[in-house]
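hiii so um. not sure if this is the right channel but i have a protein structure encoded as tokens and i wanna go backwards to a sequence. like what aa goes where. can anyone help
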């Protein structure tokens, strides 16, 4: 808004001014010169007839002067030789600036920004982190500079973290009510013992002598054999109470030629791949289980033989 004292003789309307309101210059009876820097500034006021209007060609100032039979002083191209510094103060949230502007046409020559000041907070409710079972909250307070009011919000409880069947919460240590203990490994079978009957005709055998008899483990059966490139995939049924399995392949039914044996040391394993075989060759496959007694392997009987051709 333009407002001038009654005794002013010269007025420069800045380039940032978009309009001059009606009545703005009614008291300026002594006005001799008014420069309108914005070529599109809307002039709604009355300008004394004795004043000279300064403006650019094709501007609203030129149009106003012509319509009111007033003198116009056309601007020459400004050299921006005279500069003034304009300081725009930063606020809590908005950046400020230090501007260098032309004193004649108000053109912005250079500008350096200053960072926002940030709030100066008085905390009324401190922030609180949530736990597994209790909720937390963000802080609440107000800025002593701009009056900004920060409202506290609730942060829900995180809940327990039992991971993948952990016995206790990985955060707070509380016991897991749904914890499932891992299955215990199957113990080695205990060899059965039975006293042998004394030979009535053998006078060298004592009636008090016992002989340990070790039972063979259960046999395994092959579910499927499949030929692969220079290999065979063997699948079998899991057998309880054993320590492992032994798979044997050969190119003849009597398992004499090109024989290869693979030992599986885990009772839960039910498949394996026999590699490094001859390509496009027919192989015979069989399997047996074993238990370990006193450090020695005791084998079951061999399974039924199956045949397959490699690729």
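sure thing!! here u go:
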């Amino acid at each position: 808004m333009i407002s001038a004292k009654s005794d002013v003789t010269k007025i420069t309307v800045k380039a940032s001014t978009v309009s001059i309101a009606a009545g703005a210059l009614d008291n300026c009876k002594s006005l001799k010169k008014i420069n309108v820097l914005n070529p599109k500034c809307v002039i709604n006021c009355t300008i004394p007839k004795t004043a000279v209007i300064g403006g650019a060609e094709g501007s609203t100032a030129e149009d106003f002067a012509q319509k009111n039979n007033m003198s116009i002083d056309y601007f020459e191209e400004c050299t921006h030789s005279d500069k003034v510094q304009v300081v725009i103060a930063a606020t809590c949230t908005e950046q400020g600036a230090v501007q260098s502007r032309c004193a004649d046409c108000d053109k912005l020559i250079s500008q350096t920004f200053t960072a926002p000041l940030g709030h100066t907070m008085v905390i009324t409710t401190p922030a609180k982190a949530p736990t597994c079972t209790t909720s937390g909250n963000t802080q609440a307070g107000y800025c002593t500079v701009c009056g900004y009011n920060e409202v506290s919000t609730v942060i829900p409880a995180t809940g327990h973290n039992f991971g993948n069947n952990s016995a206790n919460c990985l955060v707070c240590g509380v016991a897991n009510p749904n914890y499932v203990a891992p299955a215990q490994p199957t113990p080695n079978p205990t060899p059965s013992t039975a006293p042998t009957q004394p030979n009535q005709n053998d006078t060298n055998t004592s009636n008090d002598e016992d002989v340990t008899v070790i039972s063979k483990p259960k046999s395994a059966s092959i579910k499927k054999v499949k030929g692969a490139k220079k290999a065979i995939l063997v699948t079998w049924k899991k057998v309880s109470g054993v320590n492992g399995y032994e798979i044997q392949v050969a190119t003849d039914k009597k398992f004499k030629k090109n024989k290869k044996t693979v030992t599986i040391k885990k009772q839960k394993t039910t498949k394996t791949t026999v590699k490094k075989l001859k390509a496009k060759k027919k192989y015979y496959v069989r399997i047996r289980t074993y238990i370990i007694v006193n450090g020695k392997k005791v084998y079951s009987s061999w399974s039924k033989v199956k045949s397959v051709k490699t690729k």
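oh and The mean pLDDT is 88.
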